[in-house]
Amino acid sequence: MSLPAIERKALFKAQVTRDRTTLESAAKEVCGVTWYHLNEGLEGRRAIAAEVKEKFAHYIGYSAEYVFGSNADASAA
Q1: Measured between alpha carbons, how far is 27 from 15 in angstroms, rounded to an integer?
Q2: pLDDT tens digits, 5-22
Q3: pTM for this structure?
Q4: In the chain, where does DSSP find H-type helix?
Q5: How buried is 35 (Cβ within 10 angstroms: 0-12 exposed, 13-18 middle, 19+ buried)?
Q6: CA–CA distance, 3 with 9 (Å, rounded to integer)
Q7: What class does CATH assign to 5-71?
Q8: Which of 4, 15, 17, 67 gets the highest tally of CB atoms within 10 A of its CB?
Q9: Are residues 72 and 65 in contact, defined by beta-carbon separation less than 8 angstroms?
């Protein structure tokens, strides 16, 4: 099981709001990618590296396995 894309994005946006930053800044500083790249990956339209998945999940307070399911170490979202 994994979180639906809409929940992943909602959790990220909530943390961005708590941190008083922007989606673009958080994506770059936390995950090392642009918000566009991250958003495309969260929607399943673009591959996300396992390292980015780990950083994303940690930022929102969960494990990569919980957020992305058993394919958390795979490159596709």
Answers
A1: 11
A2: 999 999 999 999 999 999
A3: 0.88
A4: 5-18, 23-26, 35-42, 50-60, 64-68
A5: middle
A6: 10
A7: mainly alpha
A8: 67
A9: yes
